[in-house]
Design brief:
61% of the residues lie in helices and 10% in strands. The chain contains ten helices and five strands. The protein has a five-stranded parallel sheet with strand order 2-1-3-4-5.
């Protein structure tokens, strides 16, 4: 039996359904495009703000009289780090100047002192005591901190040496930082010979030591020569 052609009422109903679907699809596509445009505008604005803040900090640091002196190896090593940062195309997307890697036991002592000295020089340093929120996944917070920072500073103390031997977050942070060419070891109450016995790769970097400078002077060297 031949199929009957659709009635006029059925045709009008199908047309209304098709029109409604078209409008829903159009509205959905419009909202999606608006969200993407807003996301791109927000990202561009944040990038411009980060670059403006970074330039302001650089100008402030340059205007300060430098009172510290460098060894030849320090000047060359810090200059190499600075050049690496300058040539890295991803640097513009990094929000923070540096990531401070330290042992848990140093968080209220040497690490806090170094962090405060860096902040006093207008350095935007990522420091777990200030940047990790309670109730959040620590590993993911550390991962993001390393990812969004231009340079990694590893504060090597007797407590850090012990933490590296025991494994854990400090060891994981160091492993991630060593994979880059932007890591600066800062030795405090530890010698390079002692560090070489625990981490030859980190000891191979010249870095800085408080045997020759105070933590405040170390912070000034990092801010002045690298950032």
């Amino acid at each position: 039996m031949p199929r009957r052609p659709p009635s006029a009422a059925q045709i009008r109903s199908q047309m209304r359904s098709a029109e409604q679907k078209f409008r829903r699809d159009l509205n959905s596509a419009t909202r999606k495009a608006e969200r993407e445009i807003n996301r791109q505008l927000t990202a561009a604005q944040r990038k411009a703000e980060r670059e403006a803040r970074a330039e302001a900090r650089r100008l402030q640091r340059r205007s300060r009289p430098t009172t510290v002196t460098y060894t030849v190896s320090e000047r060359q090593y810090l200059g190499d780090i600075r050049d690496t940062v300058a040539l890295d195309d991803t640097q513009a997307d990094r929000e923070r100047d540096l990531f401070l890697c330290h042992a848990w036991a140093d968080r209220r002592h040497a690490a806090r002192q170094l962090f405060d000295a860096l902040v006093g020089l207008d350095v935007d340093a990522w420091f777990s005591e200030e940047d990790v929120d309670l109730g959040t996944n620590l590993a993911r917070q550390l991962d993001r901190g390393i990812r969004c920072s231009r340079v990694g500073v590893v504060l090597v103390t007797p407590a850090m040496m012990m933490a590296l031997r025991q494994g854990g977050f400090a060891d994981q942070e160091l492993g991630a930082l060593l994979a880059t060419n932007r890591v600066i070891p800062v030795l405090h109450e530890v010698t390079f010979e002692e560090l070489r016995g625990e981490s030859p790769l980190l000891a191979a970097r010249v870095g800085l030591t408080t045997a020759e400078s105070s933590l405040d002077e170390v912070a000034e060297k990092i801010a002045d020569r690298v950032l």
